[in-house]
Amino acid sequence: MPIDLASVDWLYVMVLAVLVFAATLVGNILSFHHRIMASLLSAIVFAGLFVFWTYYPHGLPLPITLSSQKATAPASPMVPSAPIAPAKPANPVTTIPTPR
Questions:
Q1: What is the pLDDT of residue 62?
Q2: Is residue 75 domain-resident?
Q3: In the predicted structure, residue 17 carries a pLDDT above the cut 80
Q4: Which pLDDT score is estimated for 57?
Q5: pLDDT at 35
Q6: Which residues 6+ apart lie within 8 Å of 50 measured at CB?
Q7: How far apart are the C-alpha atoms of 57 and 51, rounded to whole Å?
Q8: Quick check: is 2 in a domain?
Q9: Can you say whether the dihedral through the CA atoms of 3, 4, 5, 8 is positive or negative?
C-alpha cells in the first residue's frame, strides 16, 4: 500500500470528517433537499468551518497546518563580503622554460 497508515494523524482526519458532516447537514437543511444547492451550501459552510478551525487561535493541540511535512528550503551559500586574495604557489619559479 503506498500510504503509510501509521503516519496518518487520525484525530485530524476525524475532526475534518465531523466538519464535513456538519457542513453537509446544514447544506441539506438550508436547501430543502435540492442537490445542487445543497452541494454549494455544503462547500461554503465547510470552507467557513475549516478556515475557522485552522486559523482561529483556539489553543487546541491539533495540527493546524502541514508545515511539519514541508521540506525547508536549503540555505543559500555564504557569499564573502570581500574577495579573497589567491594563495601564493609553493614553487617560487616564475619563468616557464621554452622547449628548443
A1: 57
A2: no
A3: yes
A4: 73
A5: 85
A6: 16, 19
A7: 11
A8: no
A9: negative
Find the length of the chain.
100
What whole-number distance in Å separates Cα of residue 79 and Cα of residue 83? 10
CA distances from 28 to 14, 21, 50, 85, 92 (A): 21, 11, 18, 75, 89
Average pLDDT, whole number, for the chain? 76
- What does the alpha-carbon distance between residue 32 and residue 74 come to, in Å, rounded to a whole number? 53
Residue 15, in any domain of the structure: yes
For the cut 60, the answer to whether the pLDDT of residue 80 exceeds it is no
pLDDT per residue as tens digits for the range 34-60 = 888 888 888 898 888 888 877 777 676
Residue type, 42: S
Q: Which domain holds residue 47?
A: 8-55
Query: How many Å apart are CA 49 and CA 54, to the nearest integer?
Result: 8
Q: Is 20 exposed, middle or buried (0-12, 13-18, 19+ CB in 10 A)?
A: middle
User: What cell was used for 80?
Assistant: 564573502
Q: What is the pTM of this model?
A: 0.49
Q: Which set of grid coordinates corresponds to residue 74?
A: 536549503
For the chain, what is the domain count?
1
